[in-house]
């Protein structure tokens, strides 16, 4: 009976596992509904939050694996330990920059730890080029999770911003 209880308990923990995402950059957290792009504000890609960055370096919001660093380095996707699929999109329409002003510090398939530097960018150059620097952070497989915003307003790197619990 104890073996059954251990297996049941382990499976139950996996089903209800929660992953906390922390701020990947200093800045101002806003509701996703406030992002001036319907793809994000209408949660077409998933639920989440957005940050207006104060700095030029993005850090991993959780432990996980880098699934895709876009060729232009303006966006990156991470799979968290509880299988949440996280997309961080640095700026709106910034794919048009073709990678100018962005540098990746990670590669596809790389395991990461919360706080690892993953992307650097030149915030001022992107703003000077006429782009909005707001950065949506969405859970692309939101339908598999309960997602709670933990913070709105000014945030520092490492502060909890989202709680993502497997349904």
Features:
Glucose Permease (Domain IIA), single chain, 14 strands, 3 helices, 167 residues, mainly beta, 14% helix, three-stranded antiparallel β-sheet, eight-stranded antiparallel β-sheet
Care to give the gist of this entry?
The chain is mainly beta and 167 residues long.
Question: How are the SSEs ordered, and which strands pair?
Answer:
Layout: H1 2-15, E1 18-22, E2 27-31, H2 38-41, E3 47-53, E4 57-59, E5 64-69, E6 75-80, E7 85-89, E8 102-104, E9 111-112, E10 117-121, H3 123-128, E11 135-139, E12 145-149, E13 153-155, E14 160-166
Antiparallel strand pairs: 1-14, 2-3, 2-13, 3-11, 4-10, 5-6, 5-9, 6-7, 7-11, 8-10, 12-14
Summarize the structure in words:
The protein is mostly beta strands and 167 residues long. It has a single domain (18-166), classed as Glucose Permease (Domain IIA). It is 14% helix and 40% strand. It is built from three helices and 14 strands. The chain has helices at residues 2-15, 38-41, 123-128; strands at residues 18-22, 27-31, 47-53, 57-59, 64-69, 75-80, 85-89, 102-104, 111-112, 117-121, 135-139, 145-149, 153-155, 160-166. The strands form three sheets. An eight-stranded antiparallel sheet has the order 9-5-6-7-11-3-2-13, with no helix packed on it. The longest helix has 14 residues, at 2-15. The relative contact order is 0.27. Residues 1-16 have low confidence and may be disordered.
């Amino acid at each position: 009976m104890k073996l059954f209880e251990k297996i049941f308990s382990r499976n139950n923990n996996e089903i209800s596992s929660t992953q906390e995402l922390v701020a990947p950059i200093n800045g101002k957290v806003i509701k996703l509904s406030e992002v001036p792009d319907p793809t994000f504000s209408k949660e077409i890609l998933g639920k989440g939050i957005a940050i207006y960055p104060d700095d030029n370096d993005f850090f991993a919001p959780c432990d996980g694996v880098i699934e895709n660093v876009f060729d232009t380095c303006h966006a990156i996707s991470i799979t968290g330990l509880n299988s949440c699929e996280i997309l961080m999109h640095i700026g709106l329409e910034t794919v048009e920059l073709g990678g100018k002003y962005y540098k990746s510090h990670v590669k596809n398939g790389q395991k990461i730890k919360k706080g690892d530097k993953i992307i650097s960018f030149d915030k001022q150059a992107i703003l000077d080029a006429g782009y909005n620097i707001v950065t949506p952070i969405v859970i692309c497989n939101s339908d598999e999770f309960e997602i709670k915003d933990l913070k709105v307003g000014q945030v520092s790197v490492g502060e909890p911003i989202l709680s993502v619990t497997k349904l």
